[in-house]
């Protein structure tokens, strides 16, 4: 990606450290349950974008508190925190650390390693840049959305309930949706 391409696709995004504002951001997911999809999110997370002068050297890191999972059902949330799924007594967070920023046709992609339960696997986040604005307090903010689909089996999360006809109650594919506002640090 050339600097001109970066500036065309990310106008106003300047080099420096940008910290994710969790009060104006969301980390969510959907997964199939029987014939519908369960939606959930994580309420506690942090991260930063280090935007380099050479955009190809930019990076993103994030840490998500697994115990903050919320699917609007206390029993299900407690089950997700258990050893059947996230094992929060052993590993309290999942992390993402980017390795490259690139384009797949016209789509910007942040490739990196997602670590859950001590297992790291490569993940591509398809990015959408929403712009840069100065808020009423004088802070410069950038908005992004990112999506990906992961296989929970890749991280050893295989708990399921067999159903009639060789079907399973919980789907393997987890659709991830991330919406962030990041604040440029002085």
Textual characterization of the structure:
- The protein is mostly beta strands and 186 residues long.
- Helices cover 8% and strands 56% of the residues.
- The chain has helices spanning 3-9, 74-81, and strands at 16-20, 26-33, 36-42, 45-51, 59-65, 69-70, 93-104, 107-116, 119-134, 140-151, 162-163, 167-168, 170-184.
- The chain has an 8-stranded antiparallel β-barrel. A two-stranded antiparallel sheet has the order 11-12.
- The longest helix has 8 residues, at 74-81.
Ends distance = 26 Å
Q: How many strand segments?
A: 13
- Tell me, briefly, the overall form: elongated
In spatial order, strands of the major sheet run 1-4-5-7-8-9-10-13
**What level of helicity do the residues show?**
under 10%
- The number of distinct helices, counting runs of at least 4 residues, comes to 2
Task: Give the overall average pLDDT.
Answer: 93
Largest sheet: 8 strands, antiparallel, barrel
Q: Name the beta content range.
A: over 45%
């Amino acid at each position: 990606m050339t600097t001109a391409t970066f500036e065309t696709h990310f106008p106003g995004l300047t080099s420096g450290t940008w910290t994710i504002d969790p009060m104006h951001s969301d980390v969510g997911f959907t997964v199939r349950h029987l014939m519908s999809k369960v939606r959930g999110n994580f309420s506690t997370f942090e991260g930063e974008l280090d935007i380099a002068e050479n955009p190809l050297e930019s990076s993103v890191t994030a840490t998500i508190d697994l115990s903050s999972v919320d699917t609007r059902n206390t029993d299900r949330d407690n089950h997700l925190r258990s050893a059947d799924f996230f094992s929060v007594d052993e590993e309290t967070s999942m992390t993402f650390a980017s390795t490259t920023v690139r384009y797949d046709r016209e789509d910007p992609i942040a490739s990196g390693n997602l670590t859950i339960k001590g297992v790291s696997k490569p993940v591509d986040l398809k990015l959408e840049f929403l712009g840069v604005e100065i808020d009423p307090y004088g802070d410069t903010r950038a908005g992004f959305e990112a999506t990906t689909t992961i296989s929970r089996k890749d991280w050893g999360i295989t708990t399921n309930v067999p159903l009639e006809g060789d079907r399973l109650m919980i789907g393997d594919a987890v659709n991830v949706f991330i919406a962030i506002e990041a604040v440029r640090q002085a």
